[in-house]
Amino acid sequence: MLSVRFSRVMKKRNPIVRADTEGGQLAGEAMVEVIENQIRGNDPPETKRTLNRLMALGESKENAIRYITSALSVEIFETLKNQTPYDENRYIKNLKALPTLPFGDDE
Description:
Elements: H1 2-11, H2 22-41, H3 45-56, H4 61-82, H5 88-97
């Protein structure tokens, strides 16, 4: 029953996110919404610059947003893991490094 309901929900969802679970889908969509708000509000401006740069490198808008989501997910993880405030400088550093993913071997 849950899988049938989940598959119906998935059909209506944001195509940028492709999660295997409803919780993962919802979390991913929330992150995409944050990124879209950052782009729309130009805050921080590096998010929109990163989107444009990745698209200029040949990435689709959807893939560029997926890359940006990886930088945001690292920031969220670090904030929760260490119970520290959001670190915009770290987020921007990770944005500027894309398309190199911000997941190090030591993380």
